[in-house]
Amino acid sequence: xxxxxxxxxGHPRDGVRGVRxxxxxxxxxxxxxxxxxxxxxxxxxxxxxxxLNIGHQMNTGMIASFALAPIWFPYFVKVPAxxxxxxxxxxxxxxxxxxxxxxxxxxxxxxxxxxxxAMNFAVDLFAVGALFWSCRIIGVHATVGIYAFVxxxxxxxxxxxxxxxxxxFGFVLPVSLLVFSLxxxxxxxxxxxxxxxxxxxxxxxxxxxxxxxxxxLTAITLTWQRFRAKTVREPSLAFFLAAVVVxxxxxxxxxxxxxxxxxxGTGLKTRSEAQVEASGSLLLGGRPEWTVTIRLFQxxxxxxxxxxxxxxxxxxxxxxxxxxxxxxxxxxxxxxxxFDGSLHLHSIVADLWAAGGPAGILLVVVMLWILLTxxxxxxxxxxxxxxxxxxxxxxxxxxxxxxxxSNLHKVTLALAVGLAARAATRVLDExxxxxxxxxxxxLVPEHSRTQPPLPGxxxxxxxxxxxxxxxxxxxxxxxxxxxSARGRSSGSSPEPRRxxxxxxxxSGGP
Length: 510
What we know:
Helices cover 63% and strands 2% of the residues.
């Protein structure tokens, strides 16, 4: 078979497109076009991370999500998960405006706030496609590194937002992403595990319980992958979900015991004991807004819509929720945060349900599907990186227990990294199948493309070739060199929408 005379594609995990089908290569673009493409890909994470106001209710994120959409959108929707995600986003925004119209019968509605809220949601949601495109052009390491570096500069420029606890409210996330991007690039698994443990220890010393838990779970996941590196298996979402439940539940119980015992500090012990005593659960005591969400859902299961102002009846439902866990004394918190002008339910899934009803819940289901399947796929291939693992686990926490206005952009980044990592793995599997068999990738069955990353092992270990008739397979020699799999890239509200750590509203509720 004759290959088209084009450039040899680079390693797909470093952001350059590899072999797509057979021996056909991607045509070499003009040097000027290539430079412009790389510059645009580097500019996207910077624009989204900065989120600077440029006047007329516009910010820099809109440039990446909307103005540059003709560049990234056609590429993103070709990915099956990308098309599903875009459709679910459109359905959510449409349902939000429909519910706003329906809510006018018994609620006050601010149409200007509805438009602003829709724009804010759209910027963060469609940023997934823009960041995905950047990851595939300049690589996950570079994309996350640029995003984190600009995020760090933004935190340094706003010291008032983290004056009470610089690490927790200002620097934990951008610094962690920079560290993970660096250690992933160095490709030393032991170093990534030590980095996760060290960052977790520093976080718990600075009163950041939730991020500490995410760091510990990241270290556990990477350690498991390190010791199972030679046993690659087919991806199993059911097995992965069972592991998440078991490991997550065990980690929650263990950390709760450590907190209330005082081993992690007397300040954390006092606060944790008070929350457990009031609600019976550290999780519910730290996130009491869920009691409000449950009461509102019971009365308004279809949601409220964009720009809908809570009514006195909604406020009374909130009081009932707080009363169920003995927090009636926190009525000011309900009045000045949860029901202040719009609903602030301290949870991305709750906020999306309130704004879009069932369509909001459907959007969250799609998010969870992307996060879980992409991480499960990478763990099955033993190629999950610290960056992807940390971002995915952090996104799962934020979806359940963090406000959307300051944390949806973190979920956006995690979704883009997960999709990019999965795409890179598929390209690498196709290349391995092609080089190991001499056949075009289209002729190699999907289940036969799994290649375990065994350094020094035989090049065809783990590659199951089908029995075919009429096709003679060329012999695979011992000198065949395959790409290494060890170093893959991971892959307007009045409140501030960006912070380098846990937002002020996330510090444990009232």
